[in-house]
Amino acid sequence: MPVVTCIADLREMARRRVARAVFEYVDRGSYTEATLRANTEDLDRLWLRQRVGLDVDRRSLRTTMLGEEVRMPVALAPVGLTGLNWADGEILACRAAHKFGVPFTLSTMSICSIEDVAGAVEKPFWFQLYVMRDRGFSTSLVERAKAAGCSALVLTLDLQVQGQRHRDLKNGLAVPPRLTFGTMIDVMMKPAWTLNVLRGRRKSFGNLEGRIPDAKSLTTLGQWIAGQFDPTLSWKDVEWVKRLWGGKLILKGVLDVEDAKIAASTGADAIVVSNHGGRQLDGAVSAIRALPEIAEAVKGRTEVWFDGGIRSGQDVLKALALGADATMIGKAFAYGLGAMGEAGVTRALEIIRAELDVTMALCGLRDVKDASPAILRA
Predict the structure, then answer these.
(1) Which of 284, 352, 279 is nearest to 320 (CA)?
(2) At residue 85, does pLDDT exceed 50?
(3) Model pTM greater than 0.85?
C-alpha cells in the first residue's frame, strides 16, 4: 500500500487504476478547460497569514450545514458515474461520508439508484435534481427522493444546455463503457477495474432505468439524456420544485451576484457558488473569485457554500475566509473512490480534515467558524 499524503496522490492512483474514459470524465472540463484551471489556480493565488504566539489548543472544526452538525464544513458534491469509478461507488461514498460525519449527495446521473443507496445505508442523504423537459420524470425523481427519506434536495441550475467536454468525445465515453479498439486496449490494461465494475449491481444509470423509450443502445441513452436538459429552465421552475419538494432546498450553480440575490429571495436554504467544476461555461470566472461578492450580497438570507477546485484543507479554509459557510468537494472524493473504494473516500476526507486543522492552527484560529478575510494576505 503506497503512502498517501495528499489528494494528488489519490488522483494519481485513480488515474492508474480506472479506465481512461471514466477517469477523465471526473478529471477534465469543457472546451479549452480555462475555467477548470482557473478554479485551482485562483485558489493557489490566495496567500494565508501565518500567526504565532496565540493559543491554538483545543481546535474545533465542527459546524452545521442546514442545521445539521457536521464534523467539518465539507459535504460530498453530486458526481455522475460514481459507480463506474468503483462498483457500487455511490453506496460506498455515502457510507464513508456518514461514518466520517459529513453529508453525501447522490447525483441524478448516478449508477446506483436512489433506492439502491437508501436500502444500503442507515442515515438520510441528499439528492441532486436536474429539471428536465419531461416534467413528469422530474416529478417522479422528487417523489422517489422523498420516499427514500432524503433530507435535502440539491437543484442544479447550470446545466440548461450541456457544455462540450472534448475528452469525453475523444474517449468515446459510454455508460456502460462502449467497447471499441481503443477502449478495449485500455480495459485490458486495467483488469482490476474491469473485474471490479463487473461485480457492481448496475452498469448503467440506475435512476433512468425504464424511463427511456426504445433505449436499445448507449447511443440512444446518451441522445435521450442530452435532449432532456431544458433550456427553458427559469426561476418559476425553482418555485415549482420548492413546492413539490417541501423540504430543505439547495440551489447549486450560482456564479453571478444578481442570480444569487434572486436565489436567496426564493427561500432556498443554501446556495452553492459553483461553475460545475469548469465543465460547463468555459471562460466563466472561477468559483473562488465569484464567492466574496455573492457572500456579501446574501449574507444572513441563506447559507452560502463553495464548490470549485478544492484539493486540500487549505482550500477549504480560504473559501471560508472569503465568506463561505461551508464547502462541497467532487473531484477530490471521486479520486479517492477510484483509487481505493470506500477506504479511499475516507482517506480523502481524513486528508482534508487534517490539513484544515493544521492550517487553522498556523493561522491562529481555534474555531473554524472564526475564519475571515483577516487570515489572508493581499
Answers:
(1) 352
(2) yes
(3) yes
CB 355 within 8 A of CB 312: yes
Residue 156: CB atoms within 10 A of its CB come to 21
Grid cell for residue 329: 468537494
CA distances from 66 to 70, 124, 151, 252 (A): 10, 13, 10, 14
Residue range 306-315, pLDDT digits in tens: 999 999 999 9
Residue 339 in contact with residue 10, Cβ under 8 Å? yes
Residues written for the chain: 378
Number of helices (H), then strands (E), belonging to the chain: the values are 17, 12
Q: How many CB atoms lie within 10 A of CB 183?
A: 18
State the maximum Cα–Cα separation within the chain, in Å, rounded to a whole number.
Answer: 69
Q: Which residues on adjacent β-strands are paired with residue 377?
A: 47
The pLDDT value given to residue 317: 98
Residue 3 neighbours by CB under 8 Å, 6+ apart: 9
Q: Is 166 a catalytic residue?
A: no
Of the listed 11, 165, 190, 276, which one is catalytic?
276
